[in-house]
């Protein structure tokens, strides 16, 4: 099975939790895309009725529109029944790294407002500890004096070694990536285990200039993992 087939299996499994009349947070990324497609398909077949979708990015908004999924936002629906989204990393306590698609702020807002947050991943996303797989932990920051903020972020983690890199767009000859909210993303790369994730999260969020980061701690209620040997469902 290819990685995308595994993503699709996890996504379809998650959509089994969707019931008619629910308000659903619609995630962003290649795994969540399959879930949004599936919801659109079930609506078309009449197997799901009167769903309201709350998209977590402009990209998902466009996809859901094209599928005819009725959409709204957190202003109209401050409580969301169920959100389905992918992740870049999942640790044994179901803490996540998200945001490699650059949509972490709206994802965290929607997923923080939901009663149930179902994460869908293929088995390659499982890690022993966050930030350990050599991948970045994204931090959304305001564009104003971004170098100052990036330096401040690195300084926070001097003791464990941290490199901060501004995320750029190769397709726009290296211009800074700009999020749906008009902000920049700094990717943090850690040499060693971050240790106390909550303390790291609080320290990052206290820095003026920081908007939000990609560690989703104690937020997932269920993680659906699709692997070569089948699907595993982990509940909080
Ligand atoms: O950007 C995001 O947060 C995505 O959900 C990401 O975490 C997972 O993307 P993928 O499903 O394309 O791997």
UniProtKB/TrEMBL annotation:
Give, as in the UniProt entry, the pathway in which the protein acts. Answer: Carbohydrate degradation; pentose phosphate pathway; D-ribose 5-phosphate from D-ribulose 5-phosphate (non-oxidative stage): step 1/1
Classification via InterPro entries? NagB/RpiA_transferase-like, Ribose-5P_isomerase, Ribose5P_isomerase_typA_subgr, Ribose5P_isomerase_type_A
Question: Is ATP-binding one of the keywords?
Answer: no
Gene3D superfamilies assigned to the protein according to its UniProt record, in alphabetical order? 3.30.70.260, 3.40.50.1360
State what protein this is by name.
ribose-5-phosphate isomerase
**NCBIfam families from the UniProt entry:** PRK00702.1, rpiA
Q: Which UniProt keywords apply?
A: Isomerase
| Known catalytic reactions | aldehydo-D-ribose 5-phosphate = D-ribulose 5-phosphate
EC number(s) on record? 5.3.1.6
Recorded GO molecular functions are: ribose-5-phosphate isomerase activity
Family stated for the protein in its record = Belongs to the ribose 5-phosphate isomerase family.
GO biological process assignments: pentose-phosphate shunt, non-oxidative branch
Any matching Pfam family: Rib_5-P_isom_A
């Amino acid at each position: 099975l290819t990685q995308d087939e595994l993503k699709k299996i996890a996504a379809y499994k998650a959509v089994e939790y969707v019931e008619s009349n629910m308000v659903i947070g619609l995630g962003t990324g290649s795994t969540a895309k399959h879930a949004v497609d599936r919801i659109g398909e079930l609506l078309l077949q009449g197997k799901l009725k009167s769903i309201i979708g709350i998209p977590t990015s402009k990209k998902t908004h466009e996809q859901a529109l094209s599928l005819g999924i009725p959409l709204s936002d957190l202003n109209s629906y401050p409580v969301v029944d169920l959100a389905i989204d992918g992740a870049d990393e999942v640790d044994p306590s179901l803490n996540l790294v998200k945001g490699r698609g650059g949509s972490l702020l709206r994802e965290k807002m929607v997923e923080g407002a939901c009663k149930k947050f179902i994460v869908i991943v293929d088995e390659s996303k499982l890690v022993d500890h966050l930030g350990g797989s050599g991948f970045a932990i994204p931090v959304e920051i305001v564009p104003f004096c971004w170098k100052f903020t990036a330096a401040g972020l690195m300084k926070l983690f001097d003791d464990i070694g941290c490199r901060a890199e501004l995320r750029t767009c190769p397709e726009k000859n290296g211009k800074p990536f700009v999020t749906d909210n008009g902000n920049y993303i700094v990717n943090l790369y850690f040499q060693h285990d971050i240790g106390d994730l909550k303390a790291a999260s609080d320290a990052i969020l206290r820095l003026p200039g920081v908007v939000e980061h990609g560690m989703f701690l104690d937020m997932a209620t269920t993680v659906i993992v699709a692997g070569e040997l089948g699907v595993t469902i982990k509940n909080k």
